[in-house]
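User: Here's a chain of 224 residues. Predict its fold as tokens.
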Amino acid sequence: MMVAEAIMFIRVHALSGHIKVLAAWLLLQFIAVHAAIYAIFALFVKGIKFLPYPIGIPGCIPYRFDTTELSVVFGIIVASETLIMLITAYIGIRRYRTTDCPLLVVFYQDGILYFVSLALVTVGNIIFDLVGPPELRFMLAVPQGVLHSVLSCRMILHMYDFGRKEIMASSEETGTGMEFAPGLHSGAEGGSTRDGTRIYAGRDEANGSSEREITNSNESVIPV
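Assistant: Prediction complete.
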């Protein structure tokens, strides 16, 4: 979960253009939020009372616990995510209001989905912890951790797919590919680039010399 949160903070830092002041704030927020979360969660675990299994199986059953601490933990998480979303929206309005870069669309679409999904699950956890029956108080705790990982991986995979498509598109535009074609004379091997230029190279069977022929609008023979 910490790694998934870190990816969200790094995304905001990248969108800001690596502003040092914002980077310092994000680092401070990340450390403060997770230090508070683990400290409060430790208090929750410390206050749990356990009973041994009644049929002699090794282990224990939690029978008394106060989920107020967990509600505070989830409240800190949703507050941190809301602040990150507000910072992201401010950066988008301030820096990229007139930009139509597809990569930014990927960043903001995944960011909004990330925030809305996790905020809804976190609020649901708070409601279950405060007013839900004991058997349902941890129902959304595991899905929340899974969503953190899934949505972070989804964003990274989208960025990778975008970069791959950009590289393929730029390769096609520059015409760096080569297609093979039949030679014009005995012993020649040839090819054509994507811009229409044909290149033939081979050996003259009569005198044994090598030559390369390049034909475009004006044909020419260059001995090699």
